[in-house]
Amino acid sequence: MNTRLFPFIFAMLSVAFPFPLSASLGDDAKSVQADQAKMLGTLQTTSADSYVVHEIQTPTGVAVKEYVSPAGKVFAVTWRGSFHPDLRQLLGAYFDQYSQAVDAQRAQRRGHGPLLIQQRRLVVQITGHMRSFLGKAYLPQMMPAGFHVEDLR
Amino acid sequence: MKRARLQLILAFSLTGALAATVGCSGSNSPSSGGSAGLGPLTSNVQPITVNTGPAAGPPLNAPYIDGAFTSVTLCVPGSTTNCQTIGGILVDTGSSGLRVLSSVLTIPPLQQTGSNGAPVVECLPFVDGFTWGPVQSVDMTIAGEHANSLPIQVIGSPNFSNIPASCSSSGPPENDLLSLGANGIVGVGSFAQDCGTACTLNDASNPGLYYTCPNTGCQITAESLANQVQNPVALFASDNNGVILELPSVSGSETSVSGSLIFGIGTQSNNALGSATVYTIDSTSGNFTTVYHGTTYTDASFIDSGSNAIYFLDTNTTGFPVCTDANFWYCPSSTQSLSATNQGANGATGSVDFVVGNADTLTANAANAAVNGLAGPNSGSFDWGLPFFFGRSVYTAIEGRSTPGGVGPYWAF
């Protein structure tokens, strides 16, 4: 498949999944399909006691998991792979807040290192190095009762 | 042995500084200014310094902490006169390839073009942001080593100021001196190229790091291995199988310390493996395994001179509080002595002793750039940052390259 086909495929998938192509973290569960479409990924869904996990495997080898609460909201996302996923897509409305926090932390850290954004409404943790990235983001105030952060993998 | 080498490095750095002031010859010839009594100067030793870096002074006043800096000499490909020496380059064993701020370049490197004749531009993701800029080639000299027609990334070029959304979606940009903290980054890690096979693919599995940018706008392109931004060491004529990074021991906080970046492993009398243990690393992820107090980071641990502290675990597991004003560093009330065990993919194991100090105390004087004991939490990986290198010789072998310790990639120390 030629890379020139990207826009075409993207348009096709947009038709196949008529969901809003923006926002994921904090958004409705249906935004998972939008993410899947944007990332050209395959989707697998598993259920736990108080939440549902949608796992998207992208063709670039990144495994993305989106955690959906009983209220139908994406309250956490995790990813792992040789490259970053589309963080603007994944963090949705929180992407700009995240970017500003990264700039502030980098300045305060006086150097480079793994990210630990810890705000009241938003937590983002990204670590790794070239060709190996690992990240998680969650909304503490949207986590279902009884959910433990350690359950995010 | 160590002292003699330090003297040798000092002598070499002085001759290097002299050569740089004389003009841009482009050849830091090691034969110039030999020092009697110290023996012959080897051409594979590059001085490095842990200092506050090029952003420390006004107007930015942004001193770096725990970063190792060096200089590189760049020439227009094929030229021995159209050259410049650039200092303040961060030495990074956690990445591969040379990246230089456009704003410090005085020579015009050669622009790489794609099959459509349009310039090739790269978006390189780091953990804390991305760099964007054209892929251009230079003849690079460092110590006595040459990497000719080396593809590098020129960061923040005003000619390519429109960053595609697919690039800026990986985080905030690091395209200037303030965000980068350096005039450039020289990646001398275990990979021969920055992206590798994935970027050569012509389908949806291409991660999209390389673009061609005609006037109509940038599009993701497939990029051959040879055209990708290269680990410069891999292009040397000799001493091209890896590097050794050496720094002296540091006690608490010091203004600066000097060490060396030695090219080649087992290729000369000054870069033998000696008694170092070889830990092979996963060729895809570039990681090995670290065990700390029962927590195992399987294939999720790495050695990275480009991280400015040792980052591991969290407050719940270590029992160390984070600093009240900086949640990314630990602030135990007194310095803690710890031990962790590293495991190579080859089964080699060894324990490493390290300390965690109070970061508030250690960083109180911003003039101190070399700080041992700087550490902080990390979610899901164990990051042996620059303090790991204090008092050690750390070997990084490049993937697929033969050494007396076996074929890379591996770390040895």
Q: What is Rg of chain B?
A: 21 Å
Rough outline of chain B: globular
Sheet-strand content of chain B, in percent, reads 35-45%
Largest sheet report of chain B: 6 strands, mixed, barrel
Round the mean pLDDT of chain B to the nearest integer and report it: 91
* Portion in beta strands of chain A: 25-35%
Q: Trace the largest sheet of chain B across and list its strands.
A: 2-3-9-4-8-7
Largest interface: A-B, 47 and 70 residues
Rg over alpha carbons of chain A? 16 Å
Lateral arrangement of strands in the main beta sheet of chain A: 1-2-3-4-7-6-5
**Structural class assignment of chain B:** mainly beta
Class by helix and strand content of chain A? alpha+beta
Q: What is the helix fraction of residues of chain A, given as a range?
A: 25-40%
In whole angstroms, the N-to-C terminal distance of chain B is: 17 Å
Distance between the termini of chain A: 32 Å
Largest sheet of chain A: 7 strands, antiparallel
Query: Low-confidence spans of chain A: pLDDT under 50, at least 5 residues?
Result: 1-23
What coarse outline of chain A follows from CA principal-axis ratios? globular
Number of strands of chain B: 29
Oligomeric state, counting identical vs distinct chains: heterodimer
Structural features, described:
Helices cover 25% and strands 29% of the residues of chain A. Chain A is built from four helices and seven strands; from the N terminus they run ααββββααβββ. Chain A has helices at residues 6-16, 31-38, 87-91, 95-109; strands spanning 42-47, 52-57, 63-68, 74-81, 115-118, 123-129, 132-138. Chain A is globular and about 40 Å long. Mean pLDDT of chain A is 84; it is low at 1-23. In chain B, strands 2-3-9-4-8-7 form a six-stranded mixed barrel. In chain B, strands 22-21-16-17-25 form a five-stranded mixed beta sheet, with no helix packed on it. At the A-B interface, α3, α4, β5, β6 and β7 of A face α2, β11 and β20 of B.
